[in-house]
Backbone:
């Protein structure tokens, strides 16, 4: 159920990004360091997006689950991606929170896009 919910949350996030003018470059990019849920581009920026899906009765905000350890993994994976696919764009790390009604049924109630939530230099 957890994997299905996460996948549906990523689908919602990708749809949100497309509706807001982003081009989805790839989804679920994996390296030996970890995975990036969505890599998207818009206006000279490449956004490495971590998607967190939680139910409205969760005990913490979805963004709180992207701790420094997870951030390091995302940064290392993004560095691997950027060396594999060089680009002139600027890089940014975003989080998209997808809130659902309950854990039993997938009904999105809100999508929050947090841009530039952490920096590669911070870790």
Residues:
């Amino acid at each position: 159920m957890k994997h299905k919910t996460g996948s549906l949350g990523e689908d919602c996030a990708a749809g949100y990004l497309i509706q807001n003018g982003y081009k989805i470059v790839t989804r679920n990019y994996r390296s030996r360091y970890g995975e990036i849920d969505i890599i998207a581009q818009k206006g000279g920026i490449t956004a490495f997006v971590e998607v967190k899906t939680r139910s409205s009765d969760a005990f913490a905000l979805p963004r709180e689950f992207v701790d420094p350890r997870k951030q390091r993994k995302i940064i290392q994976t993004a560095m691997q991606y950027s060396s594999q696919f060089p680009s002139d764009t600027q890089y940014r790390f975003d989080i998209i929170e997808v809130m659902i009604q309950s854990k039993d049924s997938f009904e999105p109630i809100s999508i929050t896009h947090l841009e530039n939530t952490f920096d590669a230099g911070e870790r």
In short: The first helix runs from residue 2 to 19. Helices lie at 2-19, 68-84. The mean pLDDT is 89.
